[in-house]
Predict the structure of ABC transporter permease.
Amino acid sequence: MTLLLAVTFVFIVLRASGDPAQMMLSDEASPEALAAFRRRWGLDGSYLEQYVTYLSAIIQGDFGDSFRDGRPALQVVMERVPVTLQLGIAALLITLLIGIPVGIMAALHRGQWADHAAMSFTIFGQSVPNFFLGIILILVFSMTLRWLPSSGTGSFWHLIMPALTLATATAATVARFTRSSMLDVLHQQFMRTAKAKGIPHDRRVLRHALPNAAIPIVTVVGMRIGGLIGGAVTIETVFAWPGVGMLFVNSVNQRDLAVVQAVVLLIALTMVVVNLIVDLTYGWLDPRIEVHNKKATA
């Protein structure tokens, strides 16, 4: 249902926003040329006819052809996926390496300077638009210091600024949820019992508190993973990163309907799969959830 709604929404919006024939052909194109283009790409029927034809083709694995180069739209999109995954995985690693430790530190030092510094980071990360942060990084590290390349791909150094920009807001959100969840767990009775038994502090935090606080953390991380492709649209445009996000922006500008619809479907599918994995992870993290579900089914 989620995939169907996503495809339907983008189908309607794209066709309501302008005529692809006018965008792909010159302003001086004759009415005959426009009509021929519409017939060639199946745009001469009503919206309902186009919608039914498109859904029927998707069910058969046919996502249509790109207006720009005539190749299958799915092939065009999948060629860009590895580059976007490279950026997304790097951003995810930065998110986990920053967000979770910062959240734990803030919870363990509640009300102290470390907590205030961590919360200041979360406010900054969630408030500053990622495109603005990307531009600032380019001005500082590329234009002024000349330490890092400002655009493109091809090396580890090209990856640093885009990944850091993409990860900042996500890391801030993860840190905030980690702090809140850890504070709830640290005041539970079993934590006081573990302390009374003489269990070392680090072990109490890592082996007792963190696993019990993991469900909200896994939830927000899962949501962010699902949005990596969609969230990379702005970042890839700022840094000229040749991934799915940049392809999406160019395809929207050119009204390349098949490619845009394939990208949206890929993003929606990623969200659905990641949410399913997160739901299955709940039972592994907290067996009580699985037992509850079994009882409810019985």
User: Anything to note?
Assistant: The mean pLDDT is 82. The chain is about 80% helix and 0% strand. The first helix runs from residue 2 to 16. The chain has two domains: 2-59, 78-256+272-297.
